[in-house]
Every structure is written in structure tokens, then in C-alpha cells.
Amino acid sequence: MIAIIDSGIANLRSVQKGLERVGADAKIVEDSSTLRDASGIVLPGVGAFRDGITKLRDGGFVEPLLHAIDAGKPVLGICLGLHFLFSESEEFGHHKGLNVIKGRVVRFPEAVLSPSGGSSAARLKIPHMGWNQIRIERPAPIFKGIPDGGFFYFVHSYYVQPEDEGVIAATTEYGLRFTSVLWRDNLFACQFHPEKSQGLGLQLLKNFASLT
Amino acid sequence: MLAKRIIPCLDVKDGRVVKGTRFVNLRDAGDPAEVAALYDQQGADELVFLDITASFERREILLGAVRRTAEMAFTPLTVGGGVRTVEDIRALLLAGADKVSLNTSAVERPELITEAAMRFGSQCIVLAIDAKRVSDSFEFQVSSPELGDGGGVDLSKNPEPGTRNSELRWEVYTYGGRTPAGLDAVQWAKRGEVLGAGEILLTSMDKDGTKDGYDLALTRTVTDAVGIPVIASGGAGTLDHLYEAFVLGGADAALAASIFHFREWTVQDAKAFLRRRSVPVRE
């Protein structure tokens, strides 16, 4: 059974539906003790960092989740679930994360240097919303059957900056190049929403489910 | 590279997909969940579901249709129409919507945008604007040769001959296009961004259902004015119109209903056409 952590505000049904579609047994769990029995854990997240991390702490999910990661249980973070893993986020002030991955969560700049060159700055639309491509930096097991340059659905205003670049599995270009998939041992996390990314997203969920 | 999005729109009345011209003369175009599944298979980048049911039972009908539609689609779903409170938004998100669009209720109580964005995040709050050209300014710009070549306005950004963005105005309408709200559409879009909207769904009432192209001047003026994504809506009748919305209008996404509902083109046809013209679209 794959446990989907109920962080209170997210639309979790879509994640569950995606896993079910690829043949996995997935349950949305409100009781943190069920994480022990799970063969894999999905840490989803939509909304604001502070509310999400508070709900994780109040729900008693933090200790069992950290224990599961240390024990090598497959864990998949999605969007805000990727952000939670980091040391701190600057979203609406400074907030401490789970510190599983050293680094920070920062906001996209309002403007970037124009791609056509010169000194003029191009305005960057925030949130980064829509379908964008990933560049595979390391062949992680969750990329089986997924082409370099494949499109996934993103919606976010903040992105992660890991201190150790060795954890980066894929990157994406939006004004700058940011980490779109992170991989360390059995810990995976993606900035995009696989459950909203049609065929390629389902393939990624299937790959994750096959590890559990 | 971030792809331009093609978004089929499902106008839903009493639980059925309908399509009319300028908000009237509605024709049946199928069951929402079935239509959603078809578009999902065709590679639609998102789906928009606008409820135009007027009856008192609308809320339950809508939630049921959203639930069924969300089960069929693995792509983002935006739902709007008659959304009035933060609780309405929560109910739709729980039923399977990824984003909720606000229109009349946001005009009447702009704080709703902020309350909703604080609670659920800007990424799921779409400000829907129904805009209509204000005719006197339209006439005014035709008879103003003293301004010379564009009057300082970049005409390359203004694809319609004889019009100048600086003199065009659009008014916001509410209640499904029935009531003028006394707001300038461009100013309202800018204010919506400040209040916390994550995206603008911009519908030209003059063009909606006519199939003679998007209001490109409106689209361009709003995309230039805000720093959030803009979905162009109203008027798509050919694949060229989609191209124009992206390249001339600067839209991030193009919404279309009739051209897909009546099987004139599939979403794949639209993408193949755009790709040949170097518009970045998802495979």
C-alpha cells in the first residue's frame, strides 16, 4: 500500500486516482501511524509552505516520514512536497522545512535577462504555470520510459536550490534553470504534478509504484 | 521551453455541455465527463468547465459533474460559474477542480480574490473577465488622424488596422455578460493580479461564439499589463486564430469551444498546425 499523506488542503484524490490508474494500491492517510505499514509514501502538496509544514507537524507526520526516508522506504514528494524536504523556505517570510535536503526554497525573480541578449530584462510571469520540459541530468529509476525533453505540468512560484548538486536528477528552464526532479537513494521529488501530466505523468507514477 | 496551452472549454448548463453565440442560442454538445475524456485523449493541455446553470439545484449538479469529469481527466481542470464564497471554492477543489475561476463575485467583493488566494494559493485562483468594447472610444480612434503614426503606440503590437491600444477601452460585464460593471477591463486585470489572482481568463464578449477570431487588441493590452498568465477566450473559429492569439495577442493559453466540440478540428490538429509555425506546444 502506498500512503498519500493528507496535508489538509491539497486535492489528494487526483494523486490517488493517478496511482490507481497504473495499478497501485494507494490510500490517503490522516493517521501518521499508518506510514509504518506503507510500502511507499507520497508527500503531495498544493498551497502555501507555512500552512503545509504546520499541518505535517500537527498531524504527527514528521517523525515517521523522516524515519521512513532514513530506512530507505520509497518516498515521492510532489510540488510543495519537494519544498518541504528542504532546510528553509522564503515563501511569505522564513520558515523551517524538514531539512532532509540542505538548501533553500526561493522565489522566481520578477525579471530575467532577455534571452535575445543585451541588457534589457524580460518580465517573468509568475507563477510558472503550464507544460514545460525536463532535462534529465541523471538516469533515475523513475525516468524509465520517459524521454529527455518530455513535458510535465508545472504550477509554482518558488523553486528549490539544493546545496549539493549531486541530488539533482532533472532540471527545467524558466528564466533560469532550476531543479525539477530530485533523487537521493529511494527519495524522489518533483516540482511538477505527475498526476496532472497525462501519459508521462502516469508513467512516472507507475515507475515509483514499481519501486514500492 | 514553456509550451503555449490549448484549452478546450466546456460550457455546462443543467449538467450538459452547450455552446451558443454571444452567450445565447445554446446548442447541446454532449456529456461533460465524456467530452473531457475525449479532450484528455487528444492531448488537451487543460480543461475549463464553466457552469451556466441558473437553477437553484445548480450547486449539486455542478459538484457531481465536476467529480465525474475529474475522474476522467489527468490534466488540470478549472471550474467556474456562480462561485461566490471561499466555501464554494473549497467544495469545488475537493470535488476535483485544480483551479477555480471567479467572475461576478470578485467584481462585487474583490477581497474574495485575496481570501481565496491566502487560503488555497494564488495558483488555483483564476480571475475570469468578460470584456466588451466601449463603442464611443472605438469610434473616437477612427477619427483621430492628428495623432499621426500610431500616436506613439507600437502598432506592431496592435494587429487590427485603424485601432490604437491607447484609445481602445473595454468594460467588464458580470452575470454572464448581462450587466455592465462600470470597470475598465485592463485596470481590473491589473488589480486582480495585485489582489492575488494567479491567472486571467480573458473573454471578449464581442467575439465570443462568432468564430471570427480573438479580440487581439484586448488580449495584447492585458498580457502587456499583467505579470501573470493570460488565457485568451472568445472568437476562435480557425486554427489561424489560435496562432494569432499566441503570436499577436501574446497569450499564454488559448481557450476554444466550438472548433473542438463540433469536431472541426482535434486538439492534435491544432498543435500540429502551431508547431509547423514554430509556436512552442507540447507534443
Q: Descriptors for this entry?
A:
heterodimer; A: 212 residues; alpha/beta; Rossmann fold; eight-stranded mixed β-sheet; globular; B: alpha/beta; TIM Barrel
Summarize this entry quickly:
Chain A is α/β, with parallel strands linked by helices and 212 residues long. Chain A has helices spanning 13-21, 49-58, 62-70, 80-84, 198-211, and strands at 2-5, 26-29, 40-43, 75-78, 86-89, 95-96, 101-107, 111-113, 121-123, 128-133, 135-136, 151-156, 158-162, 168-174, 176-184, 187-190. The mean pLDDT of chain A is 92.
Secondary structure layout plus pairing:
The complex is a heterodimer of chains A (212) and B (283).
Chain A: E1 2-5, H1 13-21, E2 26-29, E3 40-43, H2 49-58, H3 62-70, E4 75-78, H4 80-84, E5 86-89, E6 95-96, E7 101-107, E8 111-113, E9 121-123, E10 128-133, E11 135-136, E12 151-156, E13 158-162, E14 168-174, E15 176-184, E16 187-190, H5 198-211
Parallel strand pairs in A: 1-2, 1-3, 3-4, 4-16, 5-7
Antiparallel strand pairs in A: 5-6, 7-13, 8-9, 10-12, 11-14, 14-15, 15-16
Chain B: E1 5-13, E2 16-21, E3 24-30, H1 32-42, E4 47-51, H2 58-72, E5 77-80, H3 86-95, E6 99-102, H4 104-108, H5 111-120, E7 125-133, H6 135-142, E8 170-174, E9 179-184, H7 185-195, E10 199-204, H8 216-225, E11 230-233, H9 239-247, E12 253-256, H10 258-261, H11 267-276
Parallel strand pairs in B: 1-4, 1-12, 4-5, 5-6, 6-7, 7-10, 10-11, 11-12
Antiparallel strand pairs in B: 1-2, 2-3, 7-8, 8-9
Roughly what percent helix of chain B? Answer: 25-40%
- Element string of chain B (H = helix, E = strand): EEEHEHEHEHHEHEEHEHEHEHH
CATH topology type of chain A: Rossmann fold
Biggest interface, chains and residues, is:
A-B, 36 and 33 residues
Provide a descriptive summary of the structure in words.
The complex is a heterodimer of chains A (212) and B (283). Chain A contains 5 helices and 16 strands. Chain A is α/β, with parallel strands linked by helices and 212 residues long. Chain A has a single domain, classed as Rossmann fold. The mean pLDDT of chain A is 92. Chain B has 11 helices and 12 strands. Chain B is α/β, with parallel strands linked by helices and 283 residues long. The radius of gyration of chain B is 18 Å and the shape is globular. An 8-stranded parallel barrel of chain B has the order 1-4-5-6-7-10-11-12, surrounded by 9 helices. Chain B has a single domain, classed as Aldolase class I (TIM Barrel, Alpha-Beta Barrel), CATH 3.20.20.70. Chains A and B meet through α1, β10, β12 and α5 of A and α5 of B.
